[in-house]
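User: Hey, my collaborator sent me this sequence without any context and asked if I could get a structure. I don't really work with proteins. Can you help?
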Amino acid sequence: MGFSMGICLWTQQASWAQIIEAAELVDALGFDHLWTVDHLLAPQGRPDQPILEGWSVLSAWAARTARVRLGLFVGANTFRHPAMTAKLATTLDHVSDGRAIVGLGAGWFEREHAAYGLEFGERPGERIGWLDESARIVRGLLDGETVTATSGRYRTEDLRLLPRPVQDHVPIMIGGSGEQRTLRIVAEQADMWNGFGTPEAMQRKIGILAGHCDAVARDIGHIELTVGANLIIGRDRAAAEDIYAAQLVANEAIETTNVTHPDQRWLATADETITRIQRYIDIGIGGLIVEMPAPFHLDTLRALAHEVRPRLDQRL
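Assistant: No problem. I've predicted the 3D structure and written it out in structure-token form, which is a compact way to encode the shape of the chain:
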């Protein structure tokens, strides 16, 4: 199995024409998965900037693409009852003819919850508990079970989803790196995991995840491990930095904005990108997910598809 590559297109400060153009290019270039963010306010810079709702975007993409898998990077569990999430995912799976991925995370952006009147929880641990409950309900419903939940935060009563998804097994992606609880949820429920950090930091997380997998008698090899990055490929590093700076300006953002981190910013040439990815492959990472704010740098997509990926595949 080769190294997988996915692209997460941010809809903040992006026109629909830009979003569709980039999504169709991602599909045409042969990327493995295509994601969008799940936010109701802009998470970069000033919150009241334009942004579109994620599940609606995915359904529109499903009708305009042919092969790429589709998901939220990652869905905010706090936004929806898990039964509704499972129904949305089933619908997406039919619209896309079996290409849906269910991205789930605990949620972190308190301001958008307050603005929309959504309960945020009193502490991160409470939200992680909600995520655990939700992942179990979603998994059961997508697998065709009749689910009754009578305790905890969520309730269902003799619920079975019809029609069933097109896929026999709709994959669940969990985003987050909490060592004791989030990675335990990954071990128990996820088909994919995404984290951020240096190869050294990610290697530590993988070791902890492996321990959780052992505890629940699961092979970690059955989970696709991915790393996330804000990646720009330029003719040289200075050119990549200029492109990234322009994206920050367009999104009224600064380097210290909450969703960016130095370990996530990969501003480099194609050769440097290959070297960096190889360090993650060497520790067991099986895929890269590139977060891309608007204005989308389409030449980075082309460089990944035509320069980076073929040379990586030759090494595997």
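In plain terms: The radius of gyration is 19 Å. You can pass these tokens on to your collaborator as they are.
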